[in-house]
Amino acid sequence: MPFTPAELEYLTSQRLGRLATVAPDSSPQNNPVGYFVRDDGTIDIGGFRMGASRKYRNVKKNNKVALVIDDLVSTDPWKVRMLEIRGDAEAIDDAEPPRAGMTSEVIRIHPRRIFAFGIEPDDEGIQRREF
Amino acid sequence: MPFTPAELEYLTSQRLGRLATVAPDSSPQNNPVGYFVRDDGTIDIGGFRMGASRKYRNVKKNNKVALVIDDLVSTDPWKVRMLEIRGDAEAIDDAEPPRAGMTSEVIRIHPRRIFAFGIEPDDEGIQRREF
Predict the structure, then answer these.
(1) What CATH number belongs to A5-130?
(2) Phi/psi of residue B98, nearest 5 degrees
(3) Which one, of A9, A1, A130, A2, lies nearest residue A81 by Cα?
(4) A13 touches chain B (CB under 8 A)
(5) What are the extents of the domains in chain B?
(6) Would you say residue A54 has pLDDT above 90?
(7) Which of B66, B71, B45 has the alpha carbon at shortest distance from B113?
(8) How far is B122 from chain A (nearest CA, A)?
(9) What is the ipTM of this complex?
(10) Please, what is the Cα angle at A86 between A82 and A89, to 5 degrees?
(11) pLDDT 10s digits, B66-89
(12) Is A68 an 8 Å CB contact of chain B?
């Protein structure tokens, strides 16, 4: 499990992540997604038309992804909490759909590097861990 | 100006965007950012340590970026509004800081492709435009 208890709690408290993938021409795309943390610390991204999506095709060609979950705690002072999860992703054709109505195609993220800011109560600055 | 009045209103109503950039090894990173729409429709991303940031260095090597602004309108039914702006970015060393206290280094995005969902009142599905 790559996440600390505070990080898991934060992931549970938020609903929307943003998934960056890279197209074969090296240009990124960035999509709002729901996410589901599995017991082993991998993260599933499902969808209602996942198999037909460009992000799914991108992952088949380039398995590097970055998922960011964040929120704006205050604007004055400007205060953002965030967890950026960079990792290797699999485009799985026959997964258990993470939610009713979703297809069996899933992007599964194996976290390799985590950047956290404002998640642990006593931490200052950006925390970085690798796996 | 690449944005419609409804899109501009949406951009003004939201505070946080997420900027995907691509590192030289073709892996993406994804960062929460404030954004400032300029009169000509380009978008400035500033920061308090922008010049030292990895995203700024990424843009110097690969100018393709994707900025997504979104929000979750309801969870049942699951309803997301979003504007994904893909474009060419410049890493500018001596820009007008978009906000007091920010440095003069700015990432300026020239929109080339916009994907919109749920922004125009009468639109259904994803709207896509190119420039």
Answers:
(1) 2.30.110.10
(2) -70, -15
(3) A9
(4) no
(5) 1-91
(6) yes
(7) B66
(8) 21
(9) 0.96
(10) 130
(11) 999 999 999 888 889 999 999 999
(12) yes
